[in-house]
Amino acid sequence: MIKTHASPHWRIYVIASVLVLCAAAIAAAATRLWVLTAIPIGFLFGFFLQKGDLCGASAFSEVLLMKDWRKIGGLWVAIVTAMVGFAALDLLGWVRLNPKPLAWLSVLVGGALFGVGMVLAGGCVSGCLFKAGSGNLNSMAGLLGIALGVAAVAYGPLHTVHRSMKAFVVKAADGGPVTLSSLSHLPYWALALAAVVMTAIVAWLFRKRRDRDTPKSGPDGSPALRLLRARSWKPWQAGLAIGVLGSAAYLSSAASGRNYPLGVTHGVLHTQLLVTDTHLRFVWKRQPPVTIAPAPAPKAPQTESNATTAGKAEEKKVVWWLVALVIGLVAGSWVSGRLSGTARLLPKPPEQIVIAFVGGLMVGTGAAFAGGCVIGNILSGWALMSVGCLLFGVVVVLANWVATYFYLMGGSLFDST
Fold first, then answer.
1. Residue range 280-285: average pLDDT?
2. For residue 308, what pLDDT is reported?
3. For residue 283, what are the β-bridge partners?
4. In this structure, are residues 225 and 14 in contact, taking their beta carbons and an 8 Å threshold?
5. In this predicted model, what pLDDT tens digit does every residue of 22-32 receive, in sequence order?
6. Cβ partners under 8 Å of residue 216, min gap 6
7. What secondary structure letter does DSSP report for 167?
8. 169, CA 20 to 30 Å: which among 34, 37, 103, 364?
9. pLDDT reported for residue 9
């Protein structure tokens, strides 16, 4: 077992991080460029993920491997906490709730690929991001595969298949997305309140089964500093922090031209596009209301000149908020790892790196087909009560368990040793 030691310069990391995050927030307030707030949000998101080790792949697999439901509990705490925040933002009129549609074929195919791929890659999209920030070579390889998989669906050879599957959509009676609210005819805030009450009751019933892995006290006497520098947080602690952060992310994202809370899949794609493409269209602020345009004039016969224009590469959208979020996420996980002494680049067997890359391809392809990952479709999607995202989560968990059973457990639920 490799021993880890916290950095002796941890105060420098803390002070430098606080200064950078405050500078970004002040600059956003002074310039009204709210996209800058994605930097501190992404940093804190990565910090919280790394502290709680809240990766969807390990959360689901550990149910079979170790009969441990704590990380799933942490994800649920994040979802319910986000529900409360979203309900408040909706009632105040600060955001417009934007649940995803029930594209059932995309969800089934994408969820199956995603669930199996995350086991091979050793992480979901956010898991590979924060683990790569801590120096995990397998996660770096998986992240490269994720970017290629998402690009293949968004703009590559799988785009036609993706577009065909998106046609299989079930709509609510009013023509909008199918949600728990549309099915139950209850307001969103009432369902969110019910979820909070149910969660509180379950937590109270299991209170005696508290997490035994309480972070040990370090040399500092302050509990806040001990929690900051602790190698790990309890899953529910990280989940609570992420859920609260989700509401701030929704406000920040909506003000930056993207009306959706936390999500990282397309942030990975857009970051890749900045490196590999030049025909880009940037989104970085809220767009003005769309006005009805007059009917277009009849198209002129195609000539050689306009045929050349039509053949030019189509501009690809890059959302700066997503780019800043994923970059900040990696940075936050690195600082968190440095504080606890877990951020280090360690060698991995070549075969593991290859498998992680292939798994990343599956994760990226599945996430692109389904329109999101554990963060976008489960954390944010479940918090928005999208039935399509609920279905995605069920498929992902089942596929993850099948892959865990055969790949990680050798096809045996019981260890004979």
1. 94
2. 40
3. 319
4. no
5. 999 999 999 99
6. 230
7. T
8. 364
9. 72
Overall pTM > 0.85: yes
Q: Distance (Å, rounded) from C-alpha 321 to C-alpha 272?
A: 14
pLDDT value at residue 305: 43
* Mean pLDDT computed over every residue of the chain: 89
At residue 356, what is the residue type? A
Asked if the model's pLDDT at residue 282 lies above 80, the reply is yes
Cα separation values, 111 from 117, 195, 365, Å: 10, 24, 10
Q: Phi, psi (5° rounding) for residue 335? A: -65, -40
Question: For 300, which DSSP code?
Answer: P
Q: What are phi and psi of 102, to 5 degrees?
A: -90, 80
Phi, psi of 354 (to 5 degrees): -65, -45
More confident of the two residues 107 and 300 = 107
Name the residue among 287, 270, 257 with its Cα closest to residue 327.
Answer: 270
171: Cα within 13 Å, side-chain hemisphere: 6
Whether 95 and 251 have beta carbons less than 8 Å apart is answered as: yes
Per the document, the length of the chain is 417
189 token code pair: 């805030």
Residue 196 burial by CB count (10 A; 0-12/13-18/19+): exposed, middle or buried? middle
Residue listed under structure tokens 């990282």: 264
